[in-house]
Design a protein that fits this description.
The protein is an alpha+beta fold. The protein is 63% helix and 10% strand. Helix 1 (3-41) packs antiparallel against helix 2, helix 2 packs antiparallel against helix 3 (81-106) and helix 6 runs parallel beside helix 9. The radius of gyration is 41 Å and the shape is elongated.
Length: 428
């Protein structure tokens, strides 16, 4: 719609509102004359008609004056809302004074009555001006409070809040301002946390990339320079290089998957799946690692669970991450259990171990990216370096399914990771 068309519609709407108001003024005047003036004063018909005509014309003139002031923006040209309110009060008092005085003249009041009416009108006008002055002060003080808070907010004080007084539009404005300020403060805190996370991420990734790259460089330099001659040492160096390359590959894959989780892009391919098969396949895949570390690995699944609607690849990744974490931190001759049970409309999965446990100070951070509570956990006995992202990825994948993951642990008494999932998700 063009600007001219919009302005034209606005003017026609204003004209229609003016006509409605004028009709209301004349209707009100007619009701006053015939419902009050005639029963109380019993004026002649000519006087009644003159009174009706005067009330209608004076009321219409008042409405037109107010409309013209509004359209010309006269009330907005004053430098203070207080002055605007006082000006409106003066104008209102003046119109009332004019209407009553002229009406008294038309009704042929005696001179004594006219003088008394004049005195009463002047007194009422002065009282109205005083009333308007204090009311305007009350309003402008509240507006100044919002303006001052906005100024402080613009200067960076995001803790600024406005005192909410009353239940009117100004109170609603104060509530809206406070909500906006709280949201800005929340966004600022999130921004600070994101910036800190970004710095930590750069530092962590730099460290985790530098270590395997440095190890690879040393191994390759030794092989190229002929430092290593015998076949056994060469094979050991190549195995070390292979492990470092695998660590780099795992880190890059984990970073890519975590980035997808952070931006909310987890493409769930939901399907009806046997959870018993998921647990069985995961245990089979982890059996070699468990046997290598002399850890007993067992599992059990409630027969009532199947079928479940999940993304089998993602949930298997969660189970694998939890099992790898449990096996690596369980000493020889220890045990790791996997159990899945029905819990109402959800399924509950637990991965328990008899490992060294987790310190209470580390538990709140266990699902954070790159978090490694104990220095000893950086590399396990087999030389495998953890990325510190496995639990964060597991948490993100569980939450993407609408579930929740938790951990309970005591140093020396093992650890239990548990997560719940809706048993039946919607297959879109």
């Amino acid at each position: 719609m063009t600007e001219n068309a919009s302005s034209s519609r606005f003017q026609w709407r204003d004209l229609w509102r003016i006509l409605q108001t004028l009709v209301g003024v004349w209707t009100f005047a007619l009701l006053l004359v015939y419902l009050l003036a005639k029963p109380l004063l019993n004026p002649p018909m000519d006087d009644a008609m003159a009174l009706l005509l005067f009330l209608g014309l004076s009321g219409s003139a008042s409405i037109l004056i107010a409309f013209i002031s509004y359209r010309l923006g006269l009330v907005t040209r004053l430098r203070s809302l207080r002055y605007t309110l006082i000006a409106v009060t003066v104008l209102t008092v003046g119109l009332v004074f004019l209407n009553v005085w002229v009406t008294a003249q038309l009704m042929f009041f005696e001179e004594h009555d006219q003088s008394l009416t004049l005195i009463l009108l002047v007194f009422a006008g002065g009282t109205a001006l005083g009333f308007g002055y204090f009311i305007s002060n009350a309003l402008t003080e509240r507006i100044k409070g919002v303006a001052e808070a906005a100024r402080q907010l613009s200067q960076g004080d995001l803790s600024t809040r406005v005192q909410v007084q009353g239940n009117d539009e100004l109170a609603e404005l104060a509530v809206t301002f406070n909500t906006m300020a709280a949201r800005l403060q929340e966004i600022d805190e999130q921004k600070r946390m994101l910036e800190q996370t970004r710095r930590d991420l750069v530092a962590w990734v730099s460290h985790d990339l530098r270590t395997p790259l440095a190890s690879l460089r040393l191994v390759i330099d030794a092989l190229v320079d002929g430092v290593v001659q015998d076949e056994e040492t060469t094979r050991r160096y190549l195995t070390t290089a292979q492990n470092e390359i695998r660590s780099l590959n795992d880190l890059i894959n984990d970073l890519f998957e975590l980035a997808q989780i952070d931006v909310g892009y987890v493409n769930l391919r939901l399907e009806r799946t046997s959870f018993n098969d998921l647990v069985s396949d995961t245990i089979s895949a982890m059996r070699a690692l468990a046997e290598k570390r002399s850890v007993r690995l067992t599992g059990s699944v409630d027969a009532r669970l199947d079928p479940v609607v999940v993304d089998p690849e993602k949930i298997q990744r969660v189970l694998s991450n939890l099992l790898v974490n449990a096996i690596r931190h369980t000493p020889s001759n220890g045990q790791v259990w996997v159990s899945a049970q029905l819990a109402g409309d959800h399924l509950r999965v637990e991965v328990r171990d008899t490992g060294e446990g987790i310190a209470s100070s580390d538990l709140p951070h266990i699902f954070e990216r790159f978090y490694r509570g104990q220095p000893a956990r950086t590399r396990d006995e087999d030389g495998q370096r953890g990325t510190g992202l496995g639990l964060a990825i597991a948490s993100g994948l569980v939450e993407a399914h609408g579930g929740k993951i938790e951990v309970q642990s005591e140093p020396g008494r093992g650890t239990t990771f548990s997560f719940t999932l809706p048993r039946r998700l919607s297959i879109g």
